TrEMBL record:
InterPro entries: Cystatin_dom, Cystatin_sf, Prot_inh_cystat_CS. The lineage of its organism: Eukaryota, Viridiplantae, Streptophyta, Embryophyta, Tracheophyta. PANTHER family: CYSTEINE PROTEINASE INHIBITOR 2 (PTHR47373:SF1). SUPFAM superfamilies: Cystatin/monellin. This is Cystatin domain-containing protein.
Length: 102
């Protein structure tokens, strides 16, 4: 199901922020680590900008498909992510995060 109010939907924007933070954490990236340009062969921390598009699917929880804009080395890039939310367990899990094909 397409989510139409993406820009003003606080839950969706927070899920986008969560996805970027989880990506950074799982790759050992963080502001304190001083990573430099990925063109130097090192990954740079991503900085969340906003969710551009979102869809959701009810499964055993709610699966969100997010198109996220984030900054890497001050360059705007687009990423695709999948986050599953299980409200009754108060849990969120990042299932997928990758650069967008567009």
């Amino acid at each position: 199901t397409e989510i139409t109010d993406v820009k003003t939907n606080e839950e969706v924007q927070e899920l986008g922020r969560f996805a970027v933070e989880e990506y950074n954490r799982s790759h050992g990236l963080g502001r304190w680590r001083g990573f430099v340009s990925s063109s130097n062969g090192r990954r740079a921390e991503l900085v969340f900008s906003r969710v551009l598009e979102a869809q959701k699917q009810v499964v055993s929880g709610i699966k969100y498909y997010l198109k996220i804009e984030a900054m890497e080395n001050k360059l705007s890039k687009t990423f695709e992510s999948v986050v599953v939310v299980k409200p009754w367990l108060h849990s969120k899990e990042l299932l997928h995060f990758s650069p967008s094909a567009e």
